[in-house]
Structure formats: C-alpha cells, structure tokens
Design goal:
With about 100 residues, this protein is an all-alpha fold. The protein has one domain. Helix 1 packs antiparallel against helix 2. The protein is elongated. The structure holds zinc ion. The site of zinc ion (ZN) has 8 residues, from helix 4. The site of zinc ion has 8 residues, from helix 4.
Length: about 100
Amino acid sequence: MNTDQIAATLRARLAEVQAEIARLETATTQELSPKFADQANDLEELATNEGLEVQHIHEAEQILAALARIEKGEYGVCAECGEDIAPARLAALPTATRCIKCAA
Ligand SMILES: [Zn+2]
C-alpha cells in the first residue's frame, strides 16, 4: 500500500467517525424521560454514548495526526527509534506511530 491509498482509507474512516460523533452528540443532548423510572435507563445510555463519543474523538485525533504525518512525509517512521514501521503493521493499524518493537 502506498501513502495515497492509506490517506484515502484514513479519510474515509475519518468521515465515518465524524458522522458517528455527530450522531452520538445528538443522542446525548436529548432530554430525559418524564418518568423517573425511565431516567435511570436514560442516564445509563447517556454514559455509554459519552464513552463511545470520547473513543471516537480519540480515534479522529489519531487519524488526523496520521494524515498530518503523511503530508509532512513522516508517515510510517517510528516516532521512537526512527526505523520504518513494517507495512503489515501499518496495514493492520494505519494510525500506528511506533514500530512493533517500540510499541511492545
Ligand atoms: Zn521503533
């Protein structure tokens, strides 16, 4: 895979993640049920959605960072030891910033 393909994959994933963040954002701003009996469920759902939203935001940040590295020509280089990150590792985890040895 060349970096153009990786960038295209990352942008597609970013669009998905952003859509999901927008969906969760709408879900978390809904009002609680009028009945107290239902509010515990509402709050539980809210907590789950917010947890998911944080995960998605974190993923979006990693994708944006990877796209920035592609732009700067630093993509695929380990941030710790400066060696090339194995293509198989990048294929499995396109946002990886460290080689398998340094990440272990
Ligand atoms: Zn390394």
